[in-house]
Amino acid sequence: MTAILALERVGKSFGGLTALSDISFSVEAGEIVGVIGPNGAGKTTLFNVITAVFPPTEGSVVFDGEALGGLPSHAIARRGIGRTFQNIRLFPAMTVEENVMVGRHCRTRAGVWRGVLRTRGEREEERGTRARTRDLLDLVGLSGADPGQAAGSLPYGHQRRLEIARALASEPRLLLLDEPAAGMNDSETEEMFRLIRRVRELGVTILLIEHDMSLVMKACDRLVVFNFGRKIAEGTPLAIREDPGVVEAYLGFQEGNGDA
Amino acid sequence: MEWINPYHLQVASFVLINVLLGVSIYVTLSTGQLSLGNAGFMSIGAYTAALLATNFQVPIPLGIAAGGLLAGAAGVLVGIPSLRLSGVYLAIATLGFGEVVRAVAINWESLTGGAVGIAGIPQMGRVILARSRDLGLSPESLGMRPNQFISLLVFLILLAASTLVVAFFLRLARSRVGRAYAAIRLDERAAESAGIPVTYYKVLAFSQGAMVSGLAGALFAHSTSFISPADFTYHRAVEILIFAVFGGSGHILGPVFGAALLTTLPEALRTVSHYRYILYGVLVVLMMIFRPQGIVDPPLLRRLRPGRTGGAA
Fold first, then answer.
1. What ipTM describes this predicted complex?
2. Strands (E) located in chain A
3. Which of B179, B197, B309 is opposite residue A74, by nearest beta carbon?
């Protein structure tokens, strides 16, 4: 197996505040790797560093053998890293269909003139985009939703799925999912689990932040555990469950804060 | 042909120039950037066309194209540093840009004629009238007086120009680039993460808005045959903003409607035209209270066109 993503001593500080320090781990192609840790451990910051929302202040992120240093976010999406956000960030006033179509942007080419003149190539490309959009809506289980409906009016669970469809539209080889099951009930979480598995079967590697432990244990091949911006453990779900350091991080947090 | 009223046509021509200006602010706004510099870009377009025509006898269509292009290029130059600004800061910076352009126009007397402005710019209608006389075609043979013929020509040229521009941006809005604009307006970070080069499109939209303003300015110069810095003041910038605020900026027809109504209204109410800016102020306050998104918004357009699903259809 080859590492599709490798973090090498990655650090991120905001002024004097260190959000991540000395993070190294790698993700093999085809894996589902879970990122867990208490709130504020730096999990979302990790995603933001990988996608260059905040470029790392130390170390480097290597994707598919090439360092991503200096690339802007959109170029990283083009390279093949898609993501979703912890607080869903759809384009609420755009339709369901348009949201996914936006995700196709970096895989399509029609510019201003071709779009305005509706050249044959442009019309073909748009047809392709729409067909692909339908397939993706199907894949995430939104084939029943009205594609012309405003995305903001979808129920919460559907918005999460739509965001995944938008991310998949850019044909990522690595998908970063930030708490995809947050706020979902058991049956919705189960559906999300199945969707994640389906996405992996398409050949997409997945890095997953999730608080729902039953989902994490079930879905992930490996886990990376964060606490206070550091990686404190890495291993299979079974090994992590037994790891005294991890147990202490979670329980210690619980004692101090009354928080899960 | 008595029904052709030059005065009405002139008002209609001003409506069309204002429609272009309304479109210009809409285009930039469609990526979430509020530019109040469009009076400045209009001025660049107007002066370019006027100077090319009066100093170098450049054919009018070429001069108009040059005016639009130069304004668009200025839009790139202003747009790139403006990327660091957003919201009200961008509005202030671009308003400042407009004032800088006006100050240059006033003080560079050797080129721009200073505060007096430029007179004797070839008027489109008159030029075409002279040409058609040369070809043996006179307005009288169409049953029109020369001034009717001239105003009609100017109106038709402006109608063609504004229709083309509106059609251009209507189509653009429904294309891949238009979706990118909308995505950037709604959530820049999500757009960037979805693979849209936000910086590129923001500068592109800014420049397109500037180019449309410049085009409007150039057409204005060749419609009135006289321009001066007083045509491109802060008041003009605010007027353009009000077209979008009043008409609505969620759809291109919003500022088009705003420009049309707010240009004809003062003419229709000539007796109170002194109170024009007071009227504008009251309108804006009322709009903010009762319809902050403007008169025309996508849901309204959907209701007016049953059977059509807006946006992606």
1. 0.92
2. 3-14, 17-28, 32-36, 58-63, 66-67, 81-83, 174-178, 205-209, 222-227, 230-235
3. B197
Write the single-letter amino acid at B172. Answer: L
The Cα A64–Cα A82 span in angstroms is 14
pLDDT one-digit tens code per residue, B232-287: 999 899 989 999 988 998 899 999 999 999 888 877 777 777 777 787 788 888 98
What backbone phi and psi angles, to 5 degrees, belong to A34? -95, 140
Dihedral, CA of residue A66, residue A68, residue A73 and residue A77, to nearest 10: 20
Q: Which residue has the tokens 């999500």?
A: B190
Determine contact, residues A93/A152, Cβ cutoff 8 Å: yes
Contact B193 A73 (CB under 8 A): yes
Q: Of B244, B308, B280, which is closest to residue B28 (Cα–Cα)?
A: B244
Strand partners, A23: A10
Q: Which residues contact B163 (CB under 8 A, 6 or more apart)?
A: none
What burial class does residue B74 get, using C-beta atoms within 10 Å of its C-beta: 0-12 exposed, 13-18 middle, 19+ buried? buried
Single pTM value for the model: 0.92
Nearest 5 degrees, angle CA B53-CA B54-CA B58?
Answer: 30
Residues of B in contact with A95 (CB under 8 A): 309, 311-312
Collapsed DSSP state (helix, strand, coil) of residue B2: coil
Cα dihedral B192, B195, B196, B199 sign: positive
CA–CA gap between residue A71 and residue A55 (Å, rounded): 9
Flag whether residue B312 sits within 8 Å of chain A, measured between CB atoms. yes
Find how far residue A114's CA is from the centre of its chain: 32
Q: Which amino acid is at B201?
A: Y
Whether residue B178 lies within 8 A of chain A, CB to CB, comes out as yes
Cα dihedral B117, B122, B125, B131 in deg (nearest 10): 170
pLDDT digits (tens, 9 = 90+) for B71-125: 999 999 999 998 888 888 999 999 999 999 999 999 999 999 999 999 999 999 9
Q: Are A114 and A121 in contact (CB under 8 A)?
A: yes
